[in-house]
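Feature request disguised as a bug: please show the residue count (297) next to LysR family transcriptional regulator in the output. Example input:
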Amino acid sequence: MSNQLELRHLKYFLAVAEELHFRRAAERLYISQPGLSRQIKQMEDDLGVTLFERHNRKVLLTKAGEYLKKELTITLKNLEHTLQHTKLLHDGKMGDLKFGYVGSAMQDIIPNLLLAFETDFPNVVFSLKELDNETQIHDLLSFDLDLGFVRLERVPKGLEIQPILKENFCLVLPKSFEVSSKSLKNLESFKNESFILFDPKYSASYYEKVMQIFDDSGFSPIVSHNTIHAGSIYKLVENGFGISIVPKSLAANNNENLKFIELDKIKQKTTLSVVWNKNNRNPMLLNLLEAIKNLTL
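Example output, currently without the count:
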């Protein structure tokens, strides 16, 4: 194999492998399409393999190309993290960690985790993003996140999942509703109310569990609004657009115009879990996972 293969060739290959279109890949890389085609051909010649099947209207990866794409994606992300970590060490930091999370995880779980973790690792840079479950899974697989906080029952191959909090659901009502936890017999009395729920895109499994609550209550809900943000749910309930059901951890809300009733007599519970990529080589991740094990919830 020729030693002329450079890092830019690998980036060119990944762009074409992801786009499966030479023109779009060239535009993404800000180079000419003929130039990109020549670079890919040179790479194939240097490796002595065919990476793409070229047809008039489409480009496909060969088996060798599929393997190279998978391995290079991991390798280049690890290289990027290594260089970032090197710069952080130079700046006096111990490392960095990127979190994705659903909103309920920010009520207590993440703040308590960060407080515990920073006792032993005070010089770590954290990046926190509120994301739906599907986006977190995508970003964990592509190594754009180190850790996710999700409400999912299962995750794709290559990811690890660990439940950290199992909790009840809560009914969310306007303060004006004359019902309490003692007077509430079942949810059937709300069958004519509009419901504001987390969008199925937030988590299909979570949405299905909420639908099971209605099934067991003997009615199909009138769903007036779907959203992925608890703040939007609360604002809509407060203004009389409907009522809602949320995880108990989201009931820690200081809005005096809302009423939360814990649904502790139904069988459905919701679980918050942490997820990570088992191939992630961020040196701080193992320390964080150890801190999670020791976290009292």
